[in-house]
């Protein structure tokens, strides 16, 4: 089948590439001309395991192509995906300007029936808005062309996006049009061979499903962080508690890790957007508000510890920082806890020597040149002449460091671990003062 995808970010590029790899003919459209030129030259704008080679193979095979021309994209296929950003507006609600701009563009250029598929995360009611806009533009063109608007939220995880897209847990389709549902079933048939992963529902339920999923995951994290803060004050170890509760199959071991807060482009904005949706209909969403408040508080936990240890004024102090991306296996730093940590350290006068396996360029792009930030080529280089080590992201590469040499390199044998990577007994045996999250006697 022929498919067009508007937006070649994490979702659009990965979805387009995976659809192409299954044999569809995919055209990816982006308004960022530099990005399109780069992609045509084999320069992939994001780090995502497995993506680069898949893009290159499918471009070489003629299954995947890129354009900055919306007109060309609209002409290419009946199926038109919208996979552009939906950043938070000033009040936290999802800003639909990019989604509606694509809808307008499709309506302006279409010369035949289109199935418009909304893959961006959008508030309940957005499909209706897209429909109304497309109808309005078609009416202004005196056109009687038909179209369907489908909701097909994306559940991929950054860092495992290709795998998630190739083997989705579920494919949610929100539509009541028999034609659109059959087109979507045919499109996703290659991903559906092992067992039926398709869940077809009405559009509004589909739109809410995406928010409910992300808000549930964010709630799990904030709940565990709340327990970690309690554990710390009660002399308990949250890692023991985690194992104790995870063994209950109703709870499970997944996604119950305490830490220095969640970040990324999705959880913070989606929790805020659902709070806004609730507020806009006069419903006070007490759980979601607490989830957000707890997360904001959690991002300050590490720096509070640093200041308890070294004092509020950190002038003259240097900290090695391991992990900048909001989670491992990505270079995405949107809303990353490491940014809150770094900025708070700078505010208190400290210097940061940072290392991340993938997010160094992104850090440079965000912060530019500054005297209080040194980007280091290895995790070991970041330790040199640093007063202590702070860990913000749980990259595999950080899990088993050489503690002897770490101790010799740091000025003080102190580790602030925002991801509970180490066994406190082992680290203390090496002679470190070890601060982790929710581990009893660590404060
Ligand atoms: P992104 O910011 O990485 O990419 C968006 C792309 O859209 C950019 O390249 C931008 O230039 C392009 N764009 C903007 N306006 C355009 C237009 N008019 N025409 C063509 N291209 C245009 O965003 P993302 O992370 O891929 O997220 C996209 C959507 O998917 C969001 O709603 C997000 O919430 C949702 N989502 C994201 C993830 C994730 O892990 N990143 C997962 C699931 C869902």
TrEMBL record:
Name of the featured protein: UDP-glucose 6-dehydrogenase
GO MF entries: oxidoreductase activity
EC number(s) from the headed UniProt entry: 1.1.1.22
Alphabetical keyword list: NAD, Oxidoreductase
Similarity remark: Belongs to the UDP-glucose/GDP-mannose dehydrogenase family.
Catalytic reaction(s) noted: UDP-alpha-D-glucose + 2 NAD(+) + H2O = UDP-alpha-D-glucuronate + 2 NADH + 3 H(+)
Organism encoding this protein: Rheinheimera tilapiae
Pathway: Nucleotide-sugar biosynthesis; UDP-alpha-D-glucuronate biosynthesis; UDP-alpha-D-glucuronate from UDP-alpha-D-glucose: step 1/1
Enzyme class: oxidoreductase
Domain UDP-glucose/GDP-mannose dehydrogenase C-terminal: residue ranges: 320-424
Superkingdom of origin organism: Bacteria
InterPro entries, sorted: 6-PGluconate_DH-like_C_sf, NAD(P)-bd_dom_sf, UDP-Glc/GDP-Man, UDP-Glc/GDP-Man_DH_C, UDP-Glc/GDP-Man_DH_C_sf, UDP-Glc/GDP-Man_DH_dimer, UDP-Glc/GDP-Man_DH_N, UDPglc_DH_bac
